[in-house]
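Subject: sequence -> structure tokens, single chain

Hey, anyone have a minute? Need the predicted structure for the following. Not urgent.
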Amino acid sequence: MKKRDVYYILCGLFGLTTVFGPFMPDTWNKGIGAGIFTLIICAALAYWFYRLAKKTDPEARFGKSKDETKQNIKTIKALKNYTVLDIETTGFSPTEDEIIEVGAVRVRNNKIVDSFSTLIHSNTLLSPKIVELTGITDEMLLTAPTLNEVMPEFKKFLGTDTIIGHNIIKFDSKFISQAFLKTQQGLFENALIDTLPISQAMYPDWPKHRLLDLIKNFNIADTENHRALDDATQNMQVFEIMKQQLH
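Reply:
Had a minute. Here:
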């Protein structure tokens, strides 16, 4: 049985308890207050399991209706020319933290034909966690080009392509948008496709959907380097496998 089905069953059970609970004598054995509290908890659990079920529902990820879902899947499967990007940053806030590396691969007819990769100078000292995760050090960034030097070339490389990324909608695109604004490059308006929700929709029984989990499950690699160009390249491979498995 799929995880989504279990969530729907639990949602139904707690929902029925909420509806019929007031008519069951056992509900009120410990008093009216306790009975009402129990019904509220059951209603909350029913809603919670419903949200979990919808979160793992492919239609909830790919579209609001079956027709929209089919159209979105058709669009993804037909995409042969696109660019995959990844970034490394000093933290998680697009307004407070900085991009320290960008990497991207240009894909034509489902094959990588060009790439873009550079470190970016930072005025912020890197935390030990970032250094350990990426292998990037403060010394490496001292002579790296500035954001003002990188962003015009990076925007030119991206062009008008559809941009693929893992968690790109909630993370990478926010940083790129801020970087474009800071360097007077205008808005980041490329169409985006995020492989994170696609993975969650296609493989709802997987416990995790990090890029690391995807490359392991697809036998692409055993480790993730957490370097922008490497991650973009692996994400391109992930996307191509997903396209083949979509139906």
